[in-house]
Structure formats: C-alpha cells, structure tokens
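User: Predict the full complex structure for these chains.
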Amino acid sequence: MKHPFGFPLALPERGSRQRMPALHGQLRAAILDGRLKPGLRLPATRELAETLAVSRNTVVVAYDLLLGEGYIEARRGAGHFVADLAVRRGERHARGDVVTPDGRLAPYWRSFASLPAPMRTDGFAYDFRLGIPDSRGFPYDIWRRLSARALRNLSKAAPLYDLAQGRWPLRQAIAQHISFARAVSCDAEDVIVTSGAQQAFDLLARVLVTPGHTVVAVEDPGYPPLRAVFLTAGARVVGVPVDEEGLIVEQLPHDAHVIYVTPSHQFPLGVVMSPRRRVALLAFARARGALVIEDDYDSEFRYSPRPLDALQTLDRDDAVCYVGTFSKCLFPSLRLGYAVVPPWLRSAFAHAKHQADWHGDVLAQDTLAAFMAEGHLVRHVRHMRKVYAARRDVLLAALQRHGKHHMRVWASDAGLHLAAKLHAPTDVTALLRRAAASGINLECLSAYAMAGAAEEGLAFGFGMIEVERMDEGIARLMRAIA
Amino acid sequence: MKHPFGFPLALPERGSRQRMPALHGQLRAAILDGRLKPGLRLPATRELAETLAVSRNTVVVAYDLLLGEGYIEARRGAGHFVADLAVRRGERHARGDVVTPDGRLAPYWRSFASLPAPMRTDGFAYDFRLGIPDSRGFPYDIWRRLSARALRNLSKAAPLYDLAQGRWPLRQAIAQHISFARAVSCDAEDVIVTSGAQQAFDLLARVLVTPGHTVVAVEDPGYPPLRAVFLTAGARVVGVPVDEEGLIVEQLPHDAHVIYVTPSHQFPLGVVMSPRRRVALLAFARARGALVIEDDYDSEFRYSPRPLDALQTLDRDDAVCYVGTFSKCLFPSLRLGYAVVPPWLRSAFAHAKHQADWHGDVLAQDTLAAFMAEGHLVRHVRHMRKVYAARRDVLLAALQRHGKHHMRVWASDAGLHLAAKLHAPTDVTALLRRAAASGINLECLSAYAMAGAAEEGLAFGFGMIEVERMDEGIARLMRAIA
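Assistant: Here is the predicted structure of the two-chain assembly.
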C-alpha cells in the first residue's frame, strides 16, 4: 500500500500479471469518482514506478491505456494530466441541485422538484408523531436466531426466483393469525405478501384504475399516501366525510368503484366504524359492484374487551380486500405487509406484483414465518398492547385534566394514536410552531384532510413517547394553546 | 389440551377470566378456517364443559356469543350447528378456480386468467436454464455474521421509515463498486436502491410513460419482463433488431422516447454492443432527447482481458440510466438492484419508489453494504468468474465439437449464458420436447422475440449446470437435433 496520490493503491505481488490492470483500474476509478481531480498532473512514469516498486513499463502501459480511453491527456513537455471527463460529474451535480421540469418525464411526474423529505430523527422531548411503533420491546435476539436458521435453510435450496404471491409458510402463518385475531375469513391461498401495506395499495391502484374513468372514494380526513397512489394511477379521488361512526356511507358518490376505509381505527380520527355503517357500506358495494379496501393498519392493539371483527368478516360478496401490515406491530423497516385478495382480483394482483418486483425479500419472509409459527408475534403484540394501553390511559387522563376546555377527544378503542377536535378556531400552524419551541412534536388533523375540508384538531401518537413524559407534554401543550 | 373436535383447544388455567374468551375465539377461528365444517353439530354445553373441565356457564356464554355473531345456529331440540357462514369460503374457492374477466378490473388486467407460473424446480439432468446463478459457492456464513451485526445495529436505532432512495452505506458501496468495476460515472447520491432490477424498470416506466404517447424501443429478441412493464404503463413498444454488433441503431424509430439496451451482454443473444453503435446510440439519444436504459445484468462475469466500459461511462448528456442487479452476482431471492439515475430524473424516480413501497428491506441493504465494504462481493465475483469461465470454455468446446453442423454460436465475452443460431429451419418446439425427454432443459430464442420476429436458435445458461455434465448434455442435444 503506497499513497502517491493521497489514497492507497493496492497492487498484486511482484511477478503477478495483474499489476498493470490493477494500476490502470484503480487510477481510472479514482478519476471517475473524483479523487483525482481534472487538471491534476500525474507523477512522471519513472517516479511512480519507483514509489510503487513496479517496472516503469507497467506504469507506461497503464498511462497509455488511460490516454487511449480519454481519462488522462498528455501535454507536450509537461507530463500527463487528468482529463476533462471528470468535469462532467461536477457539472452534473451543479445541475442536480436545480431540477427543472423535464419534458422527458410523464406530465404527472414533472411536479416533483425535490427528493422525498427524510423523516426527522432529531429528538423532541415530547414526540407525539403518528405511525411509528416502539421497537424497544422487540425480541431482536429471537429474530436474529430465526433469521440465521432461515438463511441456513435457504443456503441449501436452489437460488431460484420465488412466487410473486410470497412464501407459502408466511402466507399460512398470516392466514392463521388473522383468522384468529381478526376473524378474517381466509386461507393461505388468499394471502399475497407485499412490501408493506403501501405496495398493496399501489398494486390495487394499478389493477383497478382505468385512467380518467375510475372513481375512488376515500375517508376525509384520511391517509395521504393512499390518495397519492390512486391519483398517480389516474383515478378521480373523492373525499367522503367521517363522523363518530366512521365514513358517512350515505355521502359516498354514486359512481364510486373503489372505497378505501380504516374501519377498526380511522386514520387519523381514531373512531371505530359502527356496525350500522359497516352493513350499509357492504350493501353499497354489493349494489354498485364496488371494491372496498379495508386498511387494518394497527388494530392488533385493541383496548376494549369485545372489539368488532374486521369488515372483511361480514363480506359475503368478495367485495372487500383486506390489507394488513407488520410495520406497526413489529417495525416499519421490515417492509412486510399483505393483502387478503378475493378470487376475482387475485391473478391480476399477483401479476402486478410480479411485474413490480417479482417477489419480496425471501429471508425476511421466512424469518417472519418462523417468528409467527413459534408464537413470538402473538407474545410481542400481547406485551406491547399492555405498554400502549398504559400510555393511552395516561394520555387520555392528561388530555382530560389539562385540555378539556380546549378540545374534545374522539372516541377510539384501538391503535397507536388518539385525535382531538379543537373547540375554538385556532391558527394550528402557529400552535404547532409554539409547541415545537416547547419541545413538543405533534401533527394537526388538517394535514390529513383533502383541500377545503380542514378539520381543526390535533393528533397524538404514543408509539415513541415514554409514559412518564406524557402528562408533562400535554400540560406544556395546553400552555402553548392558552 | 383437550381434543373434543379433533384439534387442540388450549384454555388458560382454572380461575382465569380469559377462559370464555379463549374458548369463543378458538371455536370462531376453527369455524372460519374450516376446521369446523358448516352443518357440524357442536357438543352439548354440559358435555363440552365436562370434557374441558370448565364451568357449564363458560360454554353457554361462548355459544351465545357465537350465536349472536352468526357463526353457529341453534336448531330447536337438536342443539347447535356450525352456520352457513363457512360455506362461503368453499364457494369462494370453487369460484377461485375459474376466474372470469371481471369488469371491476382495469381493462389491461382482465386478461390474466391464472396466477403467475411458478419456476420449475424439478431436476433436469442437464439444466441450461437462463438467468439463474450458482449460489453454492456463496459465503453464507459471512452473510449470516454480517446480517446479525446489521440487526444488532438496527435494534439500537429508532424504528423510523427510511429514505426511499435506499440506505446510504449501500448507495456508497454500490457507487464505489461500479465506478471501479464498470467505470460507471457516479456518486452515492446518483444511486437509488430498488427491489431487483425489475423494480427499477417498473419505476422508470411509471415516470417516463405518457399512455398512448410514449414510444419505447427495445431489443428484439429481448427481455420480456421489461416489455411487460412498459406495455402495462401504456407505452407503444417497438422491437428493433439486433446483430453481431448489438442493437441496430439505424433502425430505431425516429420518435423513440426511451431505448432499452443490454450493451455488455445482449439478452438473449449474448453479443457485445460495438463501440461504433454505442457512439451512434448516444448521438441518437442526444439529438432526440431520448433516455437510454442500460441494463447491465450480468457483466460482472467477463471473460475478455479488455472489456468495454459501460455505455453510461461514455454519456455526456445525462441520457443514460444505468440499471444493475445483485440477482446474478449474488442470488435472486435477495431482491436487490439499483439504478444510477441522472439528475433530471432523480426526484421523480425517488417519489415513484416512495409511492411504490416507501423503501426496501433495511436489514438486507445493511448486510449487503457491509458485505461489499469488507470486499466479499469482489472476492465472490472473482471466485465465480473462474467457475463460470471454466463452464463457458467447456460449453463452447462442446458446441463446437458436437454442434458445428447444426448451429453457430453468437460471439460473447460476458455473463452466464451463450446463444446459438440454428443453420437449418427447425421445429424448435418439437426439439425442446425431445430435449426435455433426454433430461435437457434449455430455451429457444424465439421465446424472447416479439411477435413476427422469431430468431431460430437456442440459449444455454451455465449458472445451474456442473461443468462435468456439459459435454454430455450438448452431445445428447445434438442427437435430438439430428
């Protein structure tokens, strides 16, 4: 290892025929990745040969190749210099900062001028953000052991592509789990594994939407990423208001082809869809030939003694596609979700998955299948339900104690967040700013509303905040409101 | 554990208040999953209470709940029976076998009448299938160690969603690797991690295609899954013939917006695109404002001393999107690929990835990043290149020895397969059938051709076949041809 350029050049041992190619390749890489800047003068061949203890001819041939390829240029009497080629990267980067709409993109995609914003990781003293579970109680040691075992098994199998629908043991484990926990009516064949619930929504949009024709009804306020995939697919997305009983079925557009609901724990209000509305929704779907997408994202965490079954349980017409995820009951970075797909939709859904990415990560699927089969999922959920139930009780008490003059909490018996309606008109943006200055991170309901249908209120996630901090956080928030 | 129904009922200990809910839930699950069939008579409450050693009231309440929910029904004087509810599943399954086009699907998706076909796993004595690498030499023990370490690190981090573009250390490792190995000009920022190359193609189709407007030129014969995503997205896909120098650039349609090529190792012919054609292709893209997708799927395995750089290396106009995969140099079930995305395309691509599935599996990404950073990828590729080079030499020799009167092998200096043109017109389907009867699995080139442009020839993958079997396999094949 010599450092004639300020970085190591690692050449094979003396006598190897690979010394010249190694020198050539490493110099070329350094030029391409910018470690050797354009205009830099390279050492003379004799000098470099001495430093590297190689024959001069090795360096001469390597320089000749680089010359021929245009990576360096010779200036008469002055030696060899890194060529302009590398300048291009600098130019590209400068241009990369100011991306202007490009006619080569499909029209919809020209509006994305910047990269997706990363999730904030800076610590708030009181972090009530939505949608993030607490993974500190997760049995990582068990997962590691099962993952190692799954990998050993995989190492013995032929390295083929797998089924688009997912790994059979995982589909079996999911079918068994949701049959029991959510009374979802399904077999392993009905389950298709996806890369998070988001991919399930994306695949549904793909196979269901005829651009400019299909009408999709969504809860308003609701889940923006769901709206995004259907808008992208060319659907007309119509918001339908939500009250204490969930989606107001009577206000569905008559021509709705697809209806998206979160009946177990409305996102973001938190209400449970009433039995009356569930029956009405299924009747609507039957009468109109519509598909209902049931997003059951966090109802593993239920706090009432007799929760309602899934909407899918009541469906007699294959009119419901049930979508679940492991992002909340395990953790998001696992990227595993699933859909229980009615037969008429199944081939199209599986082919769409196949086209999208062939199939999901096999090791993660096999690890999760073993984790479920050995009962660890049920144990983890049971453990976390106690943790979250305690937080929820404290949060409810704090909102009652400090906040009853300012807001009313929406009734909710499941999940990882609560929402509240503000009594008086408030500048919520200014409020959130004041809250952030007090170390409080929370979200306003209007962030989830479609344009023009702003619900004045706040949402409180309890996946990330310690139970000890909740009362103080809410007390501070109320001082910020008052 | 008692088995009054032929399966275990696991109830909590005596005195627990969870005995009734457990009994209710387990019976409900058994009804829903079909273990208790519709019409089955349940044991009388007194009888079941005795068998399970619970109070009769526990059983009465559980049955009442099931009655109220409609899972069972009471027949006067005859007892309780499993309700019709479960019949529905039987019906659904019967219907699931014969899926008819459903008006609820978007028109394109109505033609998928059956599920994607699984990859054949039955052993052929001589398996020349394409696209599958040999994973027996893969250092699974190292992967397992790195995976365990990555998981330990993840367990200390907050369970947030990650960047759509992928994990930064992996993007860095990829940028460094392809700068060096393929002379691709890029930084980590330019790299976006995808779920296999297939997802990169799918995201490109999404952001580039305006339905009914965009013209996509592809190699013919070429890679069918690539054509499928662009067709699905609504593009007009035009096949362009290929000769010994790769895609015949002069035959590109004048209005091509997107051009897909495999310049390092044409799929399936195996030829390398000539420098002349490369220059012409980039000139075409520059003149027409077209994007070139360079699919570099297996060129880590190169057998010539001075291979050509990637097409992307020559690009000065941000007109090339380079797509790579780890499916061939590692194994397909990992589902990791990437694209080197020019700046004008980057925000749209990243947002499309975000919409498709937020981001890829984090554990797999972190494991691969460590695997690459520690030099294992380079070592593995170097090892496998020797293995494949030996197979390729034997295959070439066998094709020459046994097949020179029947076919001509396309020149090729990279990858995991060779292709050959048949001299005389042949019924290839019948030939493949005869070959299969002799234990030989191989593919015909016409399977990769677009309609009407059938190339009579055969393709020979050497990822799955032992070197010792190749000569005999080819000898047998020639007997089947003769």
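The first helix of chain A runs from residue 19 to 32.
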